[in-house]
Design a protein that fits this description.
- This protein has 279 residues and is α/β, with parallel strands linked by helices.
- It has a seven-stranded parallel sheet with strand order 8-7-6-11-9-12-10. A five-stranded mixed sheet has the order 1-4-3-5-2.
- The chain is elongated.
- The protein starts with 9 loop residues before the first strand and ends in a 10-residue tail after the last helix.
- The protein binds S-adenosylmethionine.
Length: 279
Amino acid sequence: MNETRAPGRVKEVTSVANPLVKDIKALALKKFRDQQNAFMAEGLKLVIDALDAGWSITTLVFAKAGRGNPAVEKVAARTVAAGGNVLEASEKVLSAITRRDNPQMVVGVFRQRWTKLDTIRPKPGEVWVALDRVRDPGNLGTVIRTADAVGAAGVILVGDTTDPFSVEATRATMGSVFAVPLAKASPEAFLAWRRSFSGLVVGTHLAGSTDYRRIDYGSGPVLLLMGNEQQGLPDALAQTCDRLARIPQTGKADSLNLAVATGVMLYEIRRKALPEVAG
Ligand code: SAM
């Protein structure tokens, strides 16, 4: 028996005016993502990864063309088992939801998941990344993806930042949004939490006095603090750092892109922890 075909379990939707479709389309706006505590992930692989990682799905939308596809049928069955809605949508509806001409065959709506800052107790060997007022969703998504790649313990968003659950940021994570714990905090709450942080706090600053390759990152936990794209780290955050690192540059560029600088730092901090490529 095909569980997803049970009457009432799969709703066919062909109109963009359908209230369920309207709710999903509204997730393009942060206000509605916050209200619904939800966000959208596109693509079959991402939806499977999210379900495997235990994320809670509320709605699965799949294209008519996905009917009969065993992988799609399986995620539909998992969604039903989790108490979620399953919608079989026309291409027009999927395009409207994803705002793309060639939409993915599958879109999942998931509950957001945040880690509370005061529950984070960094352990030896862990690296945490804190981003001050990151503005660009592509940068944030790329940092989350890179944090995942190096096995960082999580990313903390400080101050007024772009939303990691926006479609653009989620896309840029390439699925790592489901793998990397995320926390958010006001600058004051972050500074208070930092006082109880027992490891090394390394800020990156264009005026940093130490070459990032000369720092002994040790074996305790490391907190890497990165500044805002336009303004860099404000004084209050820079002063809380044990070290201010600079990545040397030649040429005419004023600075590196935030996500690139984070990648350079994370690979240096995690250099010994990452296995060498055999060959
Ligand atoms: N105009 C900003 C400034 O004066 O700091 C540039 C900010 S830069 C685009 C964004 C962040 O990336 C910086 O706050 C810092 O954390 C990091 N960054 C970029 N290039 C860096 C470098 N060469 N050395 C250290 N950190 C760097």
